[in-house]
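Step 1: inspect the first sequence and its C-alpha cells.
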Amino acid sequence: MPGVYISYPFCRQKCTFCNFASEVYSRALEARYVAALRAEIQRHPWRWQPETLYLGGGTPGDIDPAVLETILALVPGYPWGEATVEAAPGSITRKKAHEWRRLGINRISLGVQTFVRAEIARTGRRHTAEIVRDEIELLRDEGITNFNIDLIAGLPGQTPESWSESLDWIERLRPPHVSVYMLEIDDDSRLGREMRRGGSRYGAPDAPSEETTVTLYEMAVERLQAAGIERYEISNFAVPGHESRHNLKYWRIEPYVGFGADSHSFDGEIRRQNAETASEYVTRTERSESPCIAESPAKPDEERFYVGLRQTAGIRLHPDDWQRFETTIRRFADQGLVEAKGDTLRLTPRGILFSNEVLQEFIGT
C-alpha cells in the first residue's frame, strides 16, 4: 500500500550543513502552515489505507503533540505499519515520547550527525553524546524501540580518529538503523557556499578532503557491518528486519503521497511537487489554489535504474533493459563499477563510491 509523507519545514535553528527547504520561520507562519496542511490532507481523496507515515522537515519532532494529533487524525490507517518522526537530539521529553506512542508514532529518526562535541558545535547543534544516550533510553522506556541515527561524514574538523569516536557510540547505543551521508558541498547550505568560495566561516577550511571523507564512509561500512548493521542502500544501514519501510517505497518506485511544502507525490504514473517554500505553500492553499506547482509523467525504465540501483540488492534486469542499456552496463562492468549476475544488476563496493556518476548515466540513455 502507498505511504504518506508530511513535510514540516520549521526548525529552531538552521544547521550549517543543511541544504533542505527548511528555515527558522515565525510562529505566525507556523500556525498558518498547520491550517494549510490540515486543509490539504482533508481535501485528499483517500481511496486507500496508508501503510507507512513519515514526518520530515525541518524538525517535526518539535510540533506540540496536541497540534500533531489534529494533523494525524486526518490520515487514515491508524495504527500505521511504520510511522516515523524526525527529531533533533536535546528536544525529546518523556511526555512527548509518551504522546508520540499514543498517536501511533513507532519510529524516531534522530539527526545526530556526530557525537564529537567540537564537531557538534560547528554544525549549530546543541546536543551532546550523553544527551543522545539518555533520550534513546527514554524512548525505549516508552516503548519506541525502532529508531534511526543520522551521521554525516565530511564535517569540518572530522578525522578518522574523531569519526571512530562517533562509531564507538553507535556500537554502545545499538540502534536498529543508521544513515550515513557524505557531506554535500553545494550552494544550498551555508557551509557548502562557504567551502565553494574558499571562505573561513563555519569551519570550512577544516573540512576533510574528498578522499578522507570517502575513507570515513568506508570505515562506517566496515564498523557497522561488524556490529550487525548491514548496508541495504547507499546511505542506509539496518539490523535485518529494521529497514525503513517508508523509504523503501521511493527506491522500489512504489506509490506515495506528500503533503506540505516541497513534498512530492507519485501515484504510479504521475510525479507531482508542491510549492517549495512554506510561505508560498501557505499562500496558495489560503487562496484555495492547488499547492502543486509541477507534475510530469514517470519514466519507470530510467527511474528503476536511477533509484533501484541505490539498493544493495540491486535490480532485476528485463530483456528490454539489455537492449536499451547494454552499452552502458558493459562499460561500467569493465570499469568494475557494476556487476551483473544472472538477471540481477548491482553496484559494486567501488561503484557505490561513484554512484552519482553511474546513476546519472541511466537518465535519458
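Step 2: inspect the second sequence and its C-alpha cells, then contrast the two.
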Amino acid sequence: MPAPAASRPIRVLAVDHTAGVPPFRKKFAALARHPGIDLEVLAPERWVENYRVVRAAPGQESGYRMVTGKVGWPGYENRAFFVSGLGTAMRRTRPDVLHLWEEPFSVITLQALALASIWAPRAKAIFFSFDNLSADFHYSYRPSAFYAAVERLAHRRCVAGTAATEEVAGVLRAKGFSKSIEIVPPGLELADFPPDTRAAEGEMGRRAAADEVRARFQLNPPVVGFVGRLLHQKGVDLLIRAVASMREPRPGLVLIGDGPDKGAFVRLAEELGIGSRTRFVPMVAHDQVPALLASLDVLVLPSRTTPRWKEQFGRVLIEGMAAGCVVVGSSSGAIPEVMGGAGIVFPEEDAIVLGQALERIYAEPGLADALRIRGRARVRERFTWEAIASHVVDLYRRLAGAEFR
C-alpha cells in the first residue's frame, strides 16, 4: 500500500462505550477542532451509565461523525460487546489510528483488534485504561484468565497506551507494557461550570446563594455534599458519621445519587441524629450536575479501598473544582493525584479526621476561598477537553508519521 499523501488528514476511528453521554462527547468535538484530523466515533445505541439509560443517535456532530451499533451487556464496561456497527465502521474508515477508549482487557478491545487485523492491518491501535488494581494480571472480574489473555494480546498489538492517571501507568508498567504511555485524564468543558462569584459579589451574592440552597434542598447553608453511586466502597457512611461528629451548628448534608446501599445510609443518618439535616437526591442527567454542585460549599469523595476496588479517578472531583466547591477526598487510589494541592486529603476510613477537616474549612479564615481558586486553576490547566485534545492529537501525529504533519 503506498504511503498516504502529505495533504491527507489522519483518519481516526474512536471506539468509546461512553460516547453517547453528552458531556463526554465534548472531548471528540475538541479533537475534531484540530486541523488534519478526520474523526469517526462509534458509540453504543443504548448504554447504561450510573443507573441511567443513555441513547446515542448517529449523525454529523461538531466536526466529526457519530455512528452507532447495538451492544450486548450495555453498562458492563468490560464484558460488553458490539453486536453490530463495529465491523462496518472499520471497513468504512480504514483508520490510520484506532483509538480504543476501552480497557485493554475488554471484549470490545478484543473485537476491535480482531476486525482491524482484517480491515485495517496498518492501523496504529491505542487503548485506554482506568485500571489501578490488577498489576499481576488478576482481575476482580470473572473470568480473570480470559481478561488476562485479552490484555496480553492488546499489549502486543497496540502501539501505545493512554492512562487516566500516573497510578494507572504504573500498573501497566508492572504488567510489562514497555511502549509509550500517555496520561489522558477525563476532562470537562469549563464553560459548563460558570465561575463561583459569591465572594466577589459580597453580601448580596451570598444571600442569593443561600436562597438558592434553601429553594433547592430545603436546607439552610452551609451545605456539604456527595455526588455518585450510593455504595459501600464510596464511603458515604463515613461522610454521614463525619458530619454527625462535627460541632454545632452542623452543616446540611446532600447526598446525590442512587445505589443499592441507599436504605442503609438513610437509616444511619436517622440513627446519628442528622436525618432532618440530610437530603437524598436522585442522580440527575450529566448536564444538570454543574447547577447542583454550584449549590454546595464542600464536595466530599470519601471512597474506601476494598480487595476488589479502589478509586480509579473520581471525575466528580474535577467537576466540583470547576463549580467552585472546596473538594475533600480520602487517600484511596487516584484521589490525591487528581486533587493535587487543590483540596484536602484525609486517611481512608477515618470519619473523625474527615469531620475535623470539614470544621477547619468553615473555621479557618481564607482557606475555603484559596482552595476554590486553586481548584478551578488546576482544572483549567490539566482537565479541560481543549488541553487534553491537544495532547492526544500530538500523539496521533507522532504515531501516524511525519507525512501527516
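Step 3: confirm your contrast with the notes below.
The two ends are 20 Å apart (CA to CA). Confidence is low (pLDDT under 50) at residues 1-6.
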